[in-house]
Amino acid sequence: MPELPDISAYIEALDRRVVGRRLARCRIAAPSLLRTVDPPLERFEGRRVLRLHRLGKRVALEFEGEHWLVIHLMVAGRLYWRERQPATLRAKRVLAALDFSHGTLLLTEAGSRRRATLHAVVGRKAADALHRHGLEVLEASLAEFRGAILAQNRTLKRALTDPSICSGIGNAYSDEILHRARLSPLALTRNLDEAAIERLYRAARAVLTEWTERLCAEARERFPVRVSAFREGMAVHGRFRKPCPDCGAPVQRIRRASNEVNYCARCQTGGKLLRDRSLSLLLRTDWPRSIDDLPNG
């Protein structure tokens, strides 16, 4: 799922392409994408794009007359820009196209399940109502971050990825943040001391800032076409069994619900291996307790 740095990169790339331009036509190939009926999409045609916004993990286009189109890419949705002539909707993955005189913004989604959404609304209040208003970590003070993290007793992984707690952070960057902070993804928020909270706060801001700056710089050169949760340069996410860049131990992985958690046992859990629910039940007493129990651990 595209997260804060990825959405920021899309906005960076789109800003110079569509702001100030008039929408010629909005075409929908997958009716399930559109989740609203008022205002109709025809009312957006001929209106200029005034500015772009990130609303959590959503891309929002603000048009003249307080008209907004709000896109949530979910897990497999992506945006593409095609120059000049209107792009076709025949491709299997294409869900919608926003046509301008100089190019087309395509919304695509891989896989058979259609989860991406498009909302057409009037007014900033209606647009804001579409996201969960979690804390914007890059704009928050340490005190505000502490209050948000400690409001509910959750695992750190869940606290970072819950959109009502932290805005724009998902599976990939939460792994990176927790590795930077040297904290276990399954540690409970109520057990954090002040030093750990501050480490987590500073790690979250550093990771999000570094990746946002990197991806936005790339987006100024070319439109993002390889938006992925698995990126070269990440420390642990998507690096199962590869060496941790800090200590050299093999990166570990557990699966919880529909997500996977990537972590370094030496850097984050004192060498302890976290239990994968399905595998640990299968292996029972054979489940290794420490990274030193693994071959070449």
Please give the structural blueprint.
Layout: H1 4-18, E1 25-28, E2 49-55, E3 58-63, E4 67-72, E5 77-83, E6 94-100, E7 103-109, E8 117-122, H2 124-128, H3 142-150, H4 156-161, H5 171-181, H6 194-221, E9 252-256, E10 259-263, H7 265-268, H8 277-283
Antiparallel strand pairs: 1-6, 2-3, 3-4, 4-8, 5-7, 6-7, 9-10
Structure write-up:
- The chain has 297 residues and is of the alpha+beta class.
- It is 29% helix and 20% strand.
- The chain has 8 helices and 10 strands.
- Helix 1 runs parallel beside helix 6 and helix 5 packs across helix 6.
- The longest helix is centred in the last third of the chain and has 28 residues.
- The radius of gyration is 21 Å and the shape is elongated.
List keywords for this structure.
single chain; about 300 residues; alpha+beta; 4-stranded antiparallel beta sheet; 10 strands; elongated
Judged by helices, strands and strand pairing, the structural class is alpha+beta
Radius of gyration: 21 Å
In which order are the strands of the major sheet placed? 1-6-7-5
Helix content: 25-40%
**Main sheet attributes: strand count, strand direction, barrel closure:** 4 strands, antiparallel
The sequence of SSEs as H and E is HEEEEEEEEHHHHHEEHH
> Residue-averaged pLDDT, rounded?
91
How many beta strands in the DSSP annotation?
Answer: 10
Q: Low-confidence parts, pLDDT < 50 over ≥5 residues?
A: 279-285
- Tally the helices: what do you get? 8
- CA-CA gap between termini: 31 Å
Estimate the strand proportion.
15-25%
The geometry reads as elongated
